[in-house]
Amino acid sequence: MALIVHKYGGTSMGSTERIRNVAKRVAKWARAGHRMVVVPSAMSGETNRLLGLAKELAPAKPTTPYNRELDMLASTGEQASSALLAIALQSEGVQAVSYTGWQMGVQTDSSYTKARIERIDDERVRADLDAGRVVVVTGFQGVDELGNITTLGRGGSDTSAVAIAAAMKADECLIYTDVDGVYTTDPRVEPDARRLAKISFEEMLEMASLGSKVLQIRSVEFAGKYRVPLRVLSSFTPWDIDINEEAVSGTLITFEEDETMEQAVVSGIAFSRDEAKISVLGVPDKPGIAYHILGAVADANIEVDVIIQNLSKDGKTDFSFTVNRAEFARTVDLLKTKVLPTLGAADIVGDTKICKVSIVGIGMRSHVGVASKMFRVLSEEGINIQMISTSEIKTSVVIDEKYMELAVRALHKAFDLDQPAN
Ligand code: ASP
Ligand code: MG
To answer: Taking every annotated instance into account, which residue ranges of this chain make up the domain ACT (predicted)?
Structure first.
């Protein structure tokens, strides 16, 4: 008898009919003898709807008190869907109870709209499971030290599910979603993309951080830290398919890089349009410059990604980096008011029409020439590379946004990702 956590995404919870299907599926797992904890997202569109309402009424400058209310508001989406799922389970003849984050003791820090889970108190859930109940836990939300409701960032129910699985030492955490697994790249961009039966945890972490939206990055970090066995699978298979078949479907995120792993050098191509490039021109080339520029940015809680500093000429250099596109205006504003005047830099220029395309694979560790092959493929397509960043298992390039699809397809083909693995 295993302890299993199921997580259902917003699309899977999108209507009462779909919620009924989720309930039937969960009931099937419970009847097979498993102890079940279920974490649903808000019904699809609900979080956007709520945040849209807030936007209409929002003050000119977002403040911490405003962000607090955003969490108070957005957390209700999950609360509603959790209760609905518990009701649907009861209709299936299954004993079920739902809990909010605070009833469950999901303790977070106080960073509203992107809080981090610090602790989970699973005592109550264990008692319910012992009494034979299915427990529905409201995803996406927690509570800070002072009792304020917090949320975990968009897509945060994934993290709730994994964190609960970690806290309870679940045997497996199954993330049911509207795709049937993790693909070599987004099939909407490359129709020949293939589903991976397995992907290593490290690759998944890179894919998630580089723009693949299948899982929230924090959920993968959590899974890695606590070694939670994680599987991404479709919620759109018929609910009554054979449970043994269902249990091995989708993509398993694995910690062992065993022989059965696909032997490809590159496992996937990730991309992201959510990028913007900022260059600070003519900065004096002396110690402390990077700290001076990026320190101010970090203090404003803005995440910086790819960074390059040019060779200096006449004691001056150019410094470029990328940020999330949504943070572009704020970053430029900050640099102009806080950094330019004290730094003696000449100017700041920005470009929001860029994207980042990355190849990812643990095979890159043991193979040379993978990055150069990437550069060759892009040059053959006439695509100019603006920035490059590498790690042990990935190479990313920043290019003009209009070539994104072309780059993804060309790389997908060049690295044989359209070919079934042996
Ligand atoms: N409902 C939240 C969102 O849309 C959290 C989630 O679905 O994971 O971001
Ligand atoms: Mg999601």
So the answer is: 278-357, 359-422
